[in-house]
Design goal:
This protein is 49% helix and 17% strand. With 377 residues, the protein is of the alpha/beta class. Strands 6-7-8-3-9-10 form a 6-stranded mixed β-sheet, with helices on both faces. Strands 2-1-4-5 form a 4-stranded antiparallel β-sheet, with helices on one face. The chain starts with a strand and ends with a helix. The structure holds adenosine-5'-diphosphate and magnesium ion. The site of adenosine-5'-diphosphate has 11 residues, from strand 2 and helix 1.
């Protein structure tokens, strides 16, 4: 027995000479939750297509639980224990949540016998367990049609899990979801990861942060980088290919952004209004053209996704003007929550982080006062 659920060796897939996958090597342990990211066209979907037998490799091989899946049909591979969740939910919209799950828990029956037959006790137990896992107990008897997009995604994940796959492949599960639904999907995948091997293809960096243990970055059909999410986000090659270009802000600008973001992150959470404020202020600071600012906003979002230690960065900011600017923005960021009537107080961790920043910058007291008054206006 091998402890590798998946071993992929020198895999190449050519479409009329174009290599969608190019000599790709990849291994994954049983029980692992792996996230695969990469820019559009990197080969992510093709990668899943080869694993599931939808596309045959030109060269190389895929071993699933040590077994070469070459020339096996998609059905056969699915029966070996690979379940794939496509980007758009594939659930029966006119059946209830429970009926959808009954269908897969009871595969030899068709839609009609699921509707009018009755499920055995053990099947019911499985369905109840699944409903709990996917958090849809309260909506079990609701027609799937009436679920939110995120709930449909969870239902489909539940339907996949019902087939007890050893390896779950999930393609961009949070595209188009609200923040709350995204978090629910993340929690669900983390719960499933306790008993399944899972590959998630994802674009949303915030989500990747929520679930990621180990991240593989694909680029031009090969593995560009593998590591923790922190390593991945700091690797300049990854930043360059992931955004399709080198960062369009310079190293100094990046440092300023990171320091202010650290204020927002200091309570362990980057609130939506904090992120919005940082992105909007910095895009205006870095560019005076509206069009350019809009482009920057999308890009800057990717740089906010971590809480970096700032002492080192702070010591590198020497100009008093830049220090003042950072402090001012930092103060604005920690103040943003105080404008929320439901949460009138600036939170304590952020206040502490801000006071620390004041100390590190060592600006004259009257300057600090002036900046704070200006921000309050
Ligand atoms: P990703 O999912 O990372 O965006 P894909 O795996 O969909 O990337 O595609 C990788 C590359 O292979 C792209 O350049 C795409 O145009 C090309 N490609 C994918 N499928 C086919 C196909 N059936 N025929 C020709 N080219 C394809
Ligand atoms: Mg794709």
């Amino acid at each position: 027995m091998t402890s590798k659920i998946l071993q992929i060796e020198n895999l190449t897939v050519s479409f009329d000479g174009f290599k969608a996958l190019n000599n790709l090597n990849f291994t994954m342990d049983t029980g692992e939750l792996r996230v695969i990211i990469g820019p559009n066209g990197a080969g992510k979907t093709t990668f899943l297509d080869v694993i599931t037998g939808k596309v045959q490799p030109t060269q190389g091989r895929v071993l699933f639980k040590g077994r070469n899946v070459r020339r096996l049909s998609e059905d056969k591979i699915a029966r070996l224990g690979i379940g794939r969740k496509f980007q758009t939910p594939r659930v029966y919209l006119n059946l209830t949540v429970r009926e959808n799950l009954d269908l897969v828990c009871n595969r030899h029956k068709n839609v009609f016998s699921t509707l009018w037959g009755h499920a055995s006790v053990s099947e019911q137990r499985t369905v109840t367990g699944l409903l709990e896992t996917i958090g849809l107990v309260a909506k079990a008897d609701l027609q799937a049609d009436l679920l939110s997009h995120g709930e449909k995604q969870r239902l489909e994940i539940g339907m996949l899990v019902a087939q007890s796959p050893d390896l779950l492949l999930v393609d961009e599960p949070v595209a188009g979801l609200t923040d709350e639904e995204t978090e629910n999907i993340g929690d669900l995948l983390l719960a499933l990861a306790k008993s399944h091997s899972i590959i998630v293809i994802e674009h949303d960096m915030e989500f990747v942060r929520q679930i990621a243990r180990k991240v593989t970055v694909l680029h031009e059909g090969s593995v560009l980088y593998e590591g923790s999410i922190e390593d991945v986000q700091n690797d300049p090659r990854v930043i360059e290919v992931y955004l399709g270009r080198p960062p369009s802000i310079n190293a100094d600008q990046m440092k300023m952004l990171r320091i202010v973001a650290a204020m927002a992150w200091s309570d362990g959470n980057l609130a939506r209004e904090e992120a919005d404020l940082i992105i909007s202020q910095f895009s205006k600071l870095f560019s005076s053209e509206i069009e350019e600012q809009e482009k920057l906003q999308a890009e800057l979002k990717d740089y906010l996704v971590q809480n970096v230690p700032i002492d080192e960065l702070v010591s590198q900011i020497e100009s008093p003007e830049e220090r003042e600017l950072i402090l001012k923005l930092g103060y604005e960021v920690i103040s943003v929550s105080s404008r929320n009537p439901n949460e009138p107080n600036i939170n304590e961790e952020e206040t502490i982080a801000y006071k620390r920043l004041v100390k590190l910058f060592n600006l004259p007291e009257e300057v600090v006062k002036r900046l704070e008054v200006e921000t309050g206006e």
